Amino acid sequence: MLRGKQTWWFDNKPVIIGTATVVGPDEGDGPLAADFDLVHPELDMQQKSWEKAERLLLEQASEFALQNAKLERSQLEFYIGGDLMNQIISNSFAARSLGAPYLGVFGACSTSMESLALASQLVDSGAATHVMAGTCSHNCTAEKQFRYPTEYGSQKPPTAQYTVTGAGAAVVAATGEGPVVECATIGKVVDLGITDPFNMGAAMAPAAVDTIQAHFNDTGRSPGDYDLIVTGDLAGVGHPIAKDLLKQNGVPMDNTLFMDCGLMVYDVQKQKVQAGGSGCGCSAVVTYGHLLKRIQKGELKRILVVATGALLSPLSFQQGESIPGIAHAVAIAAGKE
Amino acid sequence: MLRGKQTWWFDNKPVIIGTATVVGPDEGDGPLAADFDLVHPELDMQQKSWEKAERLLLEQASEFALQNAKLERSQLEFYIGGDLMNQIISNSFAARSLGAPYLGVFGACSTSMESLALASQLVDSGAATHVMAGTCSHNCTAEKQFRYPTEYGSQKPPTAQYTVTGAGAAVVAATGEGPVVECATIGKVVDLGITDPFNMGAAMAPAAVDTIQAHFNDTGRSPGDYDLIVTGDLAGVGHPIAKDLLKQNGVPMDNTLFMDCGLMVYDVQKQKVQAGGSGCGCSAVVTYGHLLKRIQKGELKRILVVATGALLSPLSFQQGESIPGIAHAVAIAAGKE
Question: Fewest C-beta atoms under 10 Å: which of B5, B8, B89, B206?
């Protein structure tokens, strides 16, 4: 049901009955390594192209998510997913392997929560009983497509972010055991005129703030209702901006409550990841790999995942357009109250 | 509610309270010209780039759709749309102009019905009362991105299709006057191994057949329940293949019942469009411009629009991948029974 202006309230509390995450070597060297289902030791994953490697990540994550959910392939009614590749080919090819009716979505790095929000909405409303949401990114496909060939060895400013090599998938069901999806706030496009593609965190920060405030307005909740509020991939530059903007707007949050997946997936001080992680896979592997495990261990009771996306293309940047941002928020809790 | 395996049955019959279509000069020279809200006399629409022209088409269509629906901008709760451009920038920029919470989707040329299906599902389930679905394509942006620069003057085989320059938008509401959306069947990815991007109709035909048959299985309906069943953009090569496949599978349909938007939007004999129209805008402008007007005139009582998409990227083709197809079907009727 719609609550407020842009939030879906899930009365039937869809359950995340299984998730899986598959990552690359850099994420395997990071602080969350133990939480991922599979860590590939090499970036190419023995595939002939980076694109095939990215697709493999998602095919494995979706397969493992089914196994972890103890679900037969034929019981899955819909697959919802997208990625950063042109025409979201990683998801389309993975959906072909999966064989389920397929809804392709795109919200750049907010795709993780866009797909989880839609999957939860379908289950909550009775339009499905089992839906998988998935997404992925690969550092080398993103570099190749959005920036320069990696072999070129171009230098990056410290505001740049490092695209996560990883895929995450979650199975949402009408009944079963697992964390529940309470509600989802769908974001607006927010554009404050940032044009630097090496500073996407700053471009996305205002969108995160807009969605977080819309979420509180729509639901009547406040920061204190959550044990953790994480943005998707604002990283070292964008996250403090979002924090400052929220404080200015009367929503102060400290660094133990308000965190960012892009700052959690790597050891930003030690690993060469500039300002931190980004990419569709960033919020997906942190949420589905790490945060849901913390919920299941009882360490967190209720979290808000605010996945952020920069809605640019290389062409729109070349044509002098600014970088519109968007953020979608999903509230996940330990169980039905 | 889920009916059968992959069909959403809309018990509350969401209403299409307003639509709009904006097209380019070739579509204005075609047989459906009188049904479009605005025909641009020039392909560039006085914009500095083809991409800006494509965005303008969608911005105008969404604005006119609101006007035709007699809806204030602030009453629109969600916008759902996508397009063929990398990272669906036309829709992201148009969603920025529109200001509504935005769900980006991608199903190549099936995006028109993917977005209409999701918009209808949200309204039917009470997750929204007013949702806009939109999509667009532009001949020159598609040529530039997927094929060759138009200035290059490359020749095309007769199996190639001509991307429609046009945008279509529809406002779906919980109550009001207009045609109703009865149900939607979400398609699977179907890939029979076609690798020729100049023969997309053949690549998409099996997906159309799969979705049409799934629709009949799920709903218990048969071809006789419809006055018209249209595929999105199979055009002169793909549509006869789909017709033959359906006949082989025991679902014979004649050419007055089973048609294709790609064959309707142009005079394929007179206009230089090879096998016929294609692109996200093709099924959108034919459905929202022409077919819904025929329903409102009483000429058609119930139609099934089966929008077809080829889920390739230039890169996936260059890497030797085949072209996966998908089709989403939406049933639209004159009114609540």
Answer: B5
